[in-house]
Amino acid sequence: MYDTAGLLIVGVDRVGSAPIARARVHEGREPVARRQPKARDTRERLIAAALEVFAATGYTAASVDDIVTRAGVTRGAFYYYFTGKDDIARDLHAELWDRIASLAQEAFDPALDTVTNLKRAFDVHLDAIGHLGEGRFFLRDAWLVPELEAAGRVTQEVGASLARDLLVEGILRGEVVALDAQAMAVAVTGLFEEATLHVLSSGEAGPTVAVVHRMLDSLRPVRVQGDGRHDGVTETGAAPHGEVTP
């Protein structure tokens, strides 16, 4: 299973509220007391150096010595903030995904329908990944790092629950086809996960966004004519085989 510790799932913090909640879970990790010296820039230098090292050599081959050398600090300074390589990797992982999640959150508009908001959040999320630079290589490799996988499993479950809440609200409003909400949530979560991994690998969001739009449009109810045939247009006006609307 891929690590999904940074997976952003669009949902609601409670049914009927706006705009979204993020599935940001850190499981399998004991809280570490962080001292707060004045020289906070040292931690930032270490985080930046870790990103460069992980992107250049890969997480597995990287070492604490590589990171402190790149940052120009001592091992003592490193352990002042982090317990080891896996600890700084988790913090870096969380910071990158939280940055992307914040951008996607801003794209959410409670005045719009459920599917349109899902598409807008996907758009921003995937585009941000495509422009991460070195961060994209680290996040791509992190999906296969055992040290980060446990949090990913829990986050995926939480994300599916949030997606289910959003879809239930969409069904009640007549914006989403009346199918099993849990099954749809699992499918949307899987779509999100695989689309994210594909853009992490390719660096190109455009083609993936187009496919995601088509698939999300299938969640819209279809209008039925008097003779029982559907007219090929969803109730929100999107044609399943036409141009994808933003």
Task: Please state the second-level CATH architecture of the largest domain.
Answer: Orthogonal Bundle
Fraction of helical residues = 55-70%
Domain count: the total is 2
Structural class: mainly alpha
Helical region count? 9
Distance between the termini: 32 Å
- What's the total count of β strands? 2
- Average of per-residue pLDDT values: 76
Report on the architecture of this protein.
About 40% of the residues are buried. It contains 9 helices and 2 strands; from the N terminus they run αααααααααββ. It is elongated. Strand 1 and strand 2 (about 230-235) form a beta hairpin. The chain folds into 2 domains: about 1-25 and about 95-245, Tetracycline Repressor, domain 2 (Orthogonal Bundle), CATH 1.10.357; about 35-80, Arc Repressor Mutant, subunit A (Orthogonal Bundle), CATH 1.10.10. By secondary structure, the chain is mainly alpha-helical. Mean pLDDT is about 75; it is low at about 1-35 and about 225-245. It starts with about 40 loop residues before the first helix and ends in a 12-residue tail after the last strand. The chain has a two-stranded antiparallel ribbon with strand order 1-2. Helix 1 (about 40-55) packs across helix 2 and helix 5 runs antiparallel to helix 9. The chain has helices at about 40-55, 65-70, 75-80, 85-105, 115-130, 135-140, 145-170, 180-200, 205-215, and strands at about 220-225, 230-235.
